[in-house]
Amino acid sequence: MPMGSEHPLRRELHNELHARPSLYFDGDTDVWHVAIVGENAPPQIPNSLTGLEDVSTTREGNHGIGRIGDGRLKWEAHTEFLTLTFVVPASAEPGSNPPEAFQACCRQIDGKVIAAVRVLVRDEKDGQRPEKPKLDYVASQVGGGDAEVHSNFRLTDSGFVEFLFFNRNLNAYRTGRMVRRFPEIETYRMMALLALPMARETVSKLSVFDRRLDLLIAHMQSAVKVDKALLSEVTKLSSDVLNFSALARHRFGATKAYAEIVASRTSELREVRVEQRQRIGTFIDRRFQPAVRSVEAAERRLDELAERVSLAGDLLRTTVQVQLEDQNASLLTSMEERARIQCISSRRSKASPSSPSPTTPSGWRRSAGKHFRTGRRPAHGEARRSRRHPARALRRLDGSSSRSQEHCRRTAQSGIREPLTPHQTCARRRPFGRRRLLDRQNVRMPTRSADAPMPGRCSS
Asked: What's the rounded Cα separation, in Å, for the pair 233 and 240?
């Protein structure tokens, strides 16, 4: 391509304009149209249609035109239905059955007929009409007055809705495009009305849902505490509403889209009033729009109910959250009270004389002995001299005077070493000097008992 690389979807998107070509014809013609819907999916296109004579297809065979005998068949695959349109020269009177070839094509498709339309196109020659419309027909001049259409929108014995189309000045192309709008109006109108039974079921269901919701709200207002039964009931109601809403919303959304297409096709007719006749567009608006409004009202009520259920669920969750917060607050209060009682009990047990402190003499002995056994660094309250040799500290404490003992107690309790008095210095250093002197003379000191006083120690 000289302009550069082409987007992979360019041709597919461009050909979308020509995906549904019209059938062009002139002269007296019968147009038969049938719309078929499947059970849960659109009907499949039979392979026999693609094998017709002079066939041309678009969108991978979803739309196509072929020839059957002296007529032409057109098929179109839509989202929910499949349409067949058969154009054949006029050969039958109003109210007659469709041609056998067209019936055979319809029988090959698995589905149910939702709409069937027959348009009798007749040329108006010198103001003379070959067919006489009845008095109960509605009529409009279409195409700016170049054609006139009559219909009573009733089913004939063959099951078709018939339109009498009198052509005045339309050529083959305008005739084909104008005739095509009437089968489309009837098809999309019927597809839009598929939601009417669902709307009626929705209205009846909404009454039941409203009563259940009112009971739940009254129970929530009167109950002091939320119980499990109320929670389960609200959850069940919410699930029921959501499940039903999921089924109904799809049909309601399709109805809105189909109703817009009907209004668009009706406006394209460019209707002009016919004397003593009601216009086709007016007839459709008066008979079709109330059903569409009923569907819209049911959808609106369903949305309001879903919102109310959601608000009730939020209110219930808020209530449960407040109750949980109250329970947590009471639990924290009780835990704080137990911790306070345990703290008081621990303080009292530490202050009792049954458990000696490391700062007391007995506790000092135990701590010093432990340090001597394990080599652990003494705590803050232990004697500083015991860091060098705990056994000597014990001997000094046992054999020293009362003043030295009192000094050791104060030092152990406060953790601050006070200056020694001369008497205490003499009492504490003399034995060590004597021991060193005896060691130099190789004299062995005699052993003594723990209760005997150390020799040479000054008494108080």
From this structure: 11
Kindly report the pTM of this predicted structure: 0.67
Query: 145: left (phi > 0), else alpha (psi -120 to 50), else beta?
Result: left
Which among 437, 209, 204 has a CA at the least distance from the CA of 304? 209
Angle 298-299-304 from CA coordinates, rounded to 5°? 95
**Look-up of token digits 């803050």:** 380
Strand partners, 66: 73
pLDDT along the chain (460 residues), means of 10: 77 84 89 92 86 84 88 92 93 81 91 94 76 82 91 91 92 93 95 93 89 82 70 83 87 93 93 90 92 92 88 77 80 87 83 55 49 50 48 47 58 56 50 50 51 48
In the chain, what is the straight-line distance between the N-terminal and C-terminal CA atoms, in Å?
Answer: 122
Task: Answer yes or no: are the C-beta atoms of 72 and 85 closer than 8 Å.
Answer: no
Q: How many CB atoms lie within 10 A of CB 390?
A: 22
DSSP 11-25: HHHHGGGGSSPPP--
- H helix or E strand, kind and range, residue 138: strand 138-142
Q: Which two tokens stand for residue 54?
A: 């002079």
- Where do the DSSP E strands lie in 253-403? 272-273
Q: Where are the beta strands (DSSP E) in 177-334?
A: 272-273
Burial letters 305-340, b for 16+ CB under 10 A, else e = bbebbeebbeebeeeeeeeeeeeeeeeeeeeeeeee
Query: Which amino acid appears at position 13 of this protein?
Result: L
